[in-house]
Amino acid sequence: MKAIILAAGRGERMRPLTDRVPKPLIEVGGKPLIVHHIEKLATLGCERVVINHAHLGEMIEAALGDGTRYGLTIDYSREGEALETAGGIANALAMLGTAPFIAVNADVYSEFDYARLMTAAGRLGNANAHLVLVDNPAHHPEGDFAARSGKIALDGELLTFSGLALYRPAMFAEIAPGTRMALAPLLRKQIAAGHVLGEHFRGRWCDVGTPERLTRLNRDLRVGRV
Questions:
Q1: What backbone phi and psi angles, to 5 degrees, belong to 201?
Q2: How many CA atoms lie within 13 A of 195 on its CB side?
Q3: pTM to 2 decimals?
Q4: Where is pLDDT greater, at 18 or 115?
Q5: In terms of Cα–Cα distance, which of 31, 22, 14, 33 is closest to 79?
Q6: What is the pLDDT of residues 37-82, one digit of tens each?
Q7: DSSP assignment of 173-217, as one string?
Q8: CA proximity to 204, closest of 115, 106, 134
């Protein structure tokens, strides 16, 4: 199975730190955020990972190289200007092949078992995606989608999309490479059509979007808090 780590965001809320360090290379628990994802994917047996980047992307390539040290191959999808999530995936689609692939936001930290996404690939049926939802954090109390009996819905008790998912390439096939496009409208269309499955993860998860959240996460990891 292949995977894409979405690493093209500017990290505006993390400035001035992200003026000199790309957000995926910010350290959490003693190692860059993106390395946590790479190591988990390597352990899963994922042999090829695509990383899209824009802001300070050359630093990401210099830090990670071709992936040999992690036991996999890293390909880079370079964006002159960040294309947002759906646009970034579509731009890298030729590198991801024709089978379902894992997609991970580089700026989240979680203890979710990525093997669950590999298992989900065998259960997609006619669905085009499998999303991982989490409890709503304080900074996003309104949530995004609901999880009901293994399917994702637009109404009900809304949870937050974690940035961890499995997608079929066909979901992005009609987006021309180089197009800037957000993911949420595409997901809502697929959910309304009944083509999205998912689950509710209740373990440790953090969107490392601000210096305060970064400090809190590193503190909690040091003291072993859940």
A1: -95, 130
A2: 13
A3: 0.94
A4: 115
A5: 22
A6: 999 999 999 999 999 999 899 999 999 999 999 999 999 999 988 9
A7: TTSPTT----SHHHHHHHHHTT-EEEEEE-S-EEE--SHHHHHHH
A8: 134
CA torsion through residues 32, 37, 38, 42, sign: positive
Secondary structure, 3-state, 94-131 = HHHCCCCEEEEECCEEECCCCHHHHHHHCCCCCCCEEE
Place of tokens 């595409």: 186
**Those residues with Cβ within 8 angstroms of residue 111's Cβ, 6 or more apart along the chain or in another chain:** 203, 204, 205
For residue range 180-224, what is the model confidence (pLDDT) as tens digits?
Answer: 999 999 999 999 999 999 999 999 999 998 889 989 999 988 876
* CA–CA separation, 106 and 186 (whole Å): 20
